[in-house]
Amino acid sequence: MQIKYTIGVDVGGTNTQLALVDIAGRIVARDYLPTTGHPDAASYVKALGAKVTGLVEANGARGQVKGIGIGAPCANAASGVIEGATNLPWPSPIPLVDLVEKATGISTVISNDANAAAVGEMTYGSARGCRNFIMLTLGTGVGAGVICDGHLLSGSRGFAGELGHIFFHFAADRSCECGRYGCLQTVASAGGVVETARRMLAADVRPSALRDIPAPELNARAIGEAADAGDRMAIEVFDFTGRCLGEACATFAAFTDPDAVILFGGVARAARFMLPAMREAIEKHALHIYRNRIKVSVSSLPDSDAAILGAASLPFINTTKS
Ligand SMILES: [Zn+2]
After folding, report:
1. 227 alpha carbon to ligand 1 midpoint, in Å?
2. What angle do CA 255, 137, 268 make, to 5 degrees?
3. Is pLDDT above 70 for 320?
């Protein structure tokens, strides 16, 4: 049997995307189904299994698929079970890997979306050949995938690398959705960027285009557009975000000695305003043995396909079920 493909499945709260991906990372065919509207997880998986089989048969790929990779929230990579995912419509635990394997007959692995993004970058993106890097996903939350010695750092249950929820002194007075204060996520997520802008606007009387944006419309994208247009305060918001990320990465360096930090996600669209401060902060705060060697860049995977490519790359790594 010649292995030519993997299948990536990206489970979102509203829709599930799936794609047949060749080993070079090209999406050969794709499909989707609603995640909602199924009475239970078993009937959802039945519909998903039919879609997977449809993709395989329609593209003459039977017997040529290495495996299915699923990117999903709160996925326990070790057991293949989804635990406590608040944005999925069924009660946890959901033994998704077992259900999908039974429905399709294809070997299946699962990981959370931030880990999938890191493996996707290593398999198909700019980190090809890089054996030590940290991928930070800056979106609604802050996720991280840590690649160490060529392997995805997984931990006992697959939850290693929740770097968005480390305590960070700049954020000590910011509350996080996890119920604690001071998480890095509260400054470096999309909501964190908005909170920084709100605080700067309140602390300052300088004119800024951000003052003309009605409060409900003040989001990270709008702040990014203001920065693109040259608004000084908007640029300072991202400069602050970059400085926070750099300080945090100076600490992360001590754990895995990475060659690179790669940014991904909606907030990373404003990377040009964050990277100089981020690099400066890493060099200023990292222990001397880590200085002048950590490259900071932005993911090369296209935003729209990164999640599905990340999921499709998972069968290439050594993810084992217990
Ligand atoms: Zn938190």
Report:
1. 27
2. 115
3. no
Contact 153, 131 (CB under 8 A): no
How far apart are alpha carbons 117 and 35 in whole angstroms?
21
How confident is the model over 188-234, as pLDDT tens digits? 999 999 999 999 999 989 999 999 999 999 999 999 999 999 999 99
Domain(s) labelled CATH 3.30.420.40 in the chain stretch across 5-119+306-316, 130-299
With H, G, I as helix, E, B as strand and everything else as coil, classify residue 148: strand
Which residues neighbour ligand 1 (ion) by CB within 5 Å?
A: 165, 176, 178, 183
Give the orientation angle of helix 232-256 with respect to helix 271-285, to 10 degrees: 40
Ligand 1: centre distance to CA 181 (Å): 7
| Cβ count within 10 A of residue 22 | 15
Q: At what angle do helices 232-256 and 190-203 cross, to 10 degrees?
A: 130
The answer to whether residue 303 scores a pLDDT higher than 80 is no
Q: 302 CA to middle of ligand 1, Å?
A: 28
CATH 3.30.420.40 fits 130-299, yes or no: yes
Q: Domain 5-119+306-316 falls in which CATH fold?
A: Nucleotidyltransferase; domain 5 (3.30.420)
| DSSP code, position 79 | T
Q: Strand, helix or coil at 154? A: coil
pTM of the model: 0.86
**Tokens for 156?**
């006992």
Question: Ligand 1 centre and the CA of 162: distance in Å?
Answer: 9
Q: Say which amino acid occupies 208.
A: S
Q: How far is the CA of 256 from the centre of ligand 1 (A)?
A: 22
